[in-house]
Amino acid sequence: MFDQVPTVVLTSATLSSGGNFAFIRDRLGLDQADDLIAESTFDYQNQAILYLPPSMPDPRSREWSDAAADEVIKILNATEGRAFVLSTSLAGMQSMFENVWAEIDYPCLVQGSAAKGQLLKRFRRRRRGVVCDLEFLAGC
């Protein structure tokens, strides 16, 4: 692809690693490129929490999906549904959605059910919803 067009722009919150693009450049075979890491304006201190459950099964085990869904349900109830829940795979996102949506009192919007822009509009309009996405929004 890079040889076929004069300019390619890659954007993602996860392209850099360790403060640079060396890993992705090496993987894509890019010798020349202009880089820009834009600092986030997200207020992590006041708008995010890191929660590590005290006990979880191995993510490769069959029990992990149910245990993760139970933890997500606790968090959604505590935040009154205002959340983005991330997943690293389509299967994981679908499994999380199936295990969570009927157990909460908040609308649960899942990637693929509408365009991402539409999902964001619905989420913002409701103010108490859950968005489930693979990486752009979240996965539940």
Q: What do you see in this structure?
A:
With 140 residues, the chain is mainly alpha-helical. The protein has two domains: 39 residues, no CATH class; 90 residues, no CATH class. Strand 2, helix 5 and strand 3 form a beta-alpha-beta unit. It is globular, with a radius of gyration of 18 Å.
Strands side by side in the biggest sheet: 1-3-2
Task: Name the structural class.
Answer: mainly alpha
Low-confidence parts, pLDDT < 50 over ≥5 residues?
134-140
Question: How many domain units?
Answer: 2
Order of helices and strands: HHHEHEHE
| Share of helical residues | 25-40%
In short:
The chain has 140 residues and is mainly alpha-helical. The chain has 5 helices and 3 strands; from the N terminus they run αααβαβαβ.
List the helices and strands and how they pair.
Layout: H1 22-28, H2 44-47, H3 63-78, E1 83-86, H4 90-100, E2 108-110, H5 116-126, E3 130-133
Parallel strand pairs: 1-3, 2-3
List keywords for this structure.
3 strands, mainly alpha, 140 residues, 5 helices, 35% helix, globular, 2 domains
